[in-house]
Amino acid sequence: MEKEKLHKSELVDSLSNRKIIRKTDLRDFYKTLNAELSEKTFRRILYALEKLDIIQHVSYGYYIFGTEQALSPLEKKFIPSFSTEIRALSDSIKAAFPYTEYLIWETRVLHEFMLHQPGQNQIILETEKETAETIFNFLNDKFIGKVFLRPNREIIERYALHNADSIIISTLLIQAPIQRVNNIPSPKLEKILVDIFAEDEKFILFQGQELIHIYETAFHAYWISEKTLFRYAQRRKVYQKLRAFISKKTDIQLIQQEEAYLLTPWRGARFGWGWRLSWDPGSRDHFGREEAQYVDTWARVVVISFSPAELEALLRYT
Q1: Cα 37 to the center of its chain, rounded Å
Q2: Are 171 and 195 spatial neighbours (Cβ–Cβ below 8 Å)?
Q3: Of the candidates 5, 85, 216, 294, which lies 20 to 30 Å from 246 by C-alpha distance?
Q4: Are residues 100 and 235 in the same domain?
Q5: DSSP letters of 152-195?
Q6: Residue 171 and residue 189 share a domain
């Protein structure tokens, strides 16, 4: 598509006051130039805008201008650098418990986001509930007095914080955001941010003004997937508290909105949290029922239920 047909200068002038551009904003702009704009033509325009680096895709339905240097962190992924102790510990667990799922990280990875640098470092080990005590006994034989199994605040304050590189073992939640760094299973930054918010008694050193600074610095320095962040926050039952904290206590401007409607293929209606809707008739849930796929935004939703046939018919005409 020819550049002049993209109306680049008019587009930039029209939306230059926005750091984040929604797909609907782009569609509305081009519809002002052509009221008969078809969806097929609009998709061709989006493709051309991205190919010419006029806009960059940053999340589902969201873009930035390709020349926006201030938002370069949106493309920067957080990859922690682990100590030799972490690598050795991970290798020993993997060798002794080859079929156990676990993740491991150390709190010093948060130091780059903090105002004050704590002298303590804690190694956080999360594993399956059934194997947590076995791994505790295995490690406690090697690191006597430095390993703690699901400690409460008193134990952390009295003992864990006074041990260099103390190891804290807790239960790994299913479907937690995990990545592999040099073959070490570790949490994504989104999980770390949610955990230090949700477990204030476990992560004592990272509360108050430090927590605010950690969030602001992390969001400004790296690409944070709001979908991943809030989906995990929902699993930890802190979605509303976390969203309120970010909105009221920090200078972070969230990309995604909080309102959405969700249709599901079984009967009944309720309020809940879910993802914006895209329809895939071949998708099935854990019970083998056809279902709509959740995409885009974790949001407050009205859940309206239909049979699969009714839902497919409804979506065909909407």
Answers
A1: 35
A2: no
A3: 294
A4: yes
A5: -HHHHHHTGGGSTTEEEEEEPPTT--EEEETTEEEE-HHHHHHH
A6: yes
